[in-house]
Amino acid sequence: MPRQSHPNEKGSAVVEFTFLALLLMVPIVYFVITVGQIQGGSFAVVGAADQAAKVFVAQADASTAQAAAERAVALALSDFGHQPDRANMSTTCNPADCQAAGTAVTVTVRLTVPLPFVPFAEGLSATEVEASSTQLVGRYR
Question: Torsion over CA of 115, 117, 120 and 122, rounded to 10 degrees?
Fold first, then answer.
């Protein structure tokens, strides 16, 4: 026997579907956007660390090398749409003289990836990503 519909229930399925779709889709879309931001941050720190290490070993003195590496990090991060002030760069040399031929220079870049669409929560972040790159100082520069 077919079900009889009541006149005041007409169109309620569309409303229920729309409500449930919004309720389920908004968190899923936000999750996908957040994962995309984290992946973009990962690509950004890998590129920033690699470029910073390359420009560091190409400079003649330590102060110029450090400044050039910091500029390279800022440029690489801004290319990916991340703010350079959210990043932290550290440099280590083995042996300690960073300008000696054969020295391994390691540059590590850490970036705090913010939550998307949350401008009012300054302390909140999605995660922190980190990458390192090592280059050898050449004999001839």
Answer: 20
